[in-house]
Amino acid sequence: MSQVLPLTSPLGTLVGALRRALPVLPVVAVIAMLGLPIAPDGEGGATVADAVSGLVVVCCAVRLVRERRRPLTRTAAVVMGMPVVGIAIAAVGAASPGAGITGLARYLQIFVLVPGAVLLLIRDRRDFRLLTWSFVALALWQGAVGVHQYVTGTGASYMGEDIRAVGTFGPTDVMGMATVVAFGLVCALALALGALGPVAARQRTAAVTCSLLLLPPLALSFSRGAWIATAVACCAQLVLAGLRRAAKAGAAVAAAAVILVGGLGVGTAMLQERIDSISQVADAPDQSVVDRYTMWAAAVDMWRDHPLTGVGLKAFPDQRDGHASLALSSGSDIGGAGAAYRKQPLLSPHNMYLLVLSEQGLIGLLALAGSWLALLVCGLRGLMRVRRGSSGVPRWPGTSPEAAGAAHGGLDCALVACGLFVWQLIDFAYADIGGPSTVLTAVCFGLVAWWALADPASVASPGSTPSGEATAR
User: Fold this and answer.
1) Would you give the distance in Å from CA 28 to the centre of its chain?
2) Nearest to 439 by CA among 26, 22, 15
3) How far apart are CA 166 and CA 163, in angstroms?
4) DSSP-assigned states of every residue in 133-178
5) Is residue 42 packed enough to be buried (19+ CB in 10 Å), middle (13-18) or exposed (0-12)?
6) Per-residue pLDDT tens over the stretch 166-221
């Protein structure tokens, strides 16, 4: 005769927690897959995380069919579906059917399908926080690997030494670890700033500890774009959280910087030189910056030739040489972290806005930027409702007074969504989609979309949404 585990036992509690989190476990699996090592000499293509992200979309579809729920309301459908217009037009204008189909699938995966699935699978703030802590856990793992690479000299090649922290992503995706660690740092800071009251003291302590632990690997990534985006996003979070919290957090960061740089000697000569180079990108740029400026000019030149629809998806590499000046180098040198030295071709302008403008034209850029602007506005409106507390929360149809009054408990979720989105919008000025870590960008957009577009009842309540109600308004 089988014995039923009591819910109060540790194993029973674990089973109950897993059962409650079941809908978002596929999304957690996507994040976990990014902790696996990437082949050092890999030539790109789909990864295990990409395959699992497809499973997330399938799980979302199955759940919607089983529950017979309306997937998205008109507002959410319009905001999430706007990028499809430019992507579809650019796919038709691609140089070959294969390139059009491949580009269409990638763009839909990153900006439409996976974010929409994450939006629909998250039911409440507990699911949101589970994914947020998953971001932090992945960042701690990749950061630990990166610091080990720097200390032991087994990282990617940088200025003749194998010291660049790249985590498990390898030298072909040097921005991978920097992106993951930056996401984790932004999430941890938001969890610390948004933890209100004595009940959240443990969350606040854990989040502050994680934030401090993630500073060294971010510095050792030598990624100027990630540094700038993280600094802007964290400052925005501090301002949005309130001046008092901003002052306390600023003092803590200053103290940590003094300890790390002055006491532990984290500020090496190479790191200082990399920091100084940020102010020299206009006066005395290095070759990597010259290449970036040249590719930016080439992207703008492509757009001038095809202002409305662009040159077509996946067409930038083929059109590059016809529009770039002689200042462009033959490629970037990569090596280390288990990979042999070789030249990596420059296949994109390393600017998401210019990449979309060149390949999708004004139609594509306005559609994608319009969707992002709507998410940003809706996300900030949600944060303002949280800041105002129960007196300022509007009563949406079907929302109980208790659910509306509980909205003030979601400040951490609001800061996570707004911080991640600000980080991504800033980083897109220095980078674009590509590489194994790109699927994490899709999950990031899903978190932002849930906060911006979800039903206020589910945002306000830490428990499950009432059955039969739509997840997004």
Assistant:
1) 14
2) 26
3) 9
4) HHHHHHHHHHHHHHHHHHHHT-SEEETTEEEE--GGG-GGGHHHHH
5) middle
6) 999 988 888 899 999 999 999 999 998 887 665 577 888 899 899 989 998 998 88
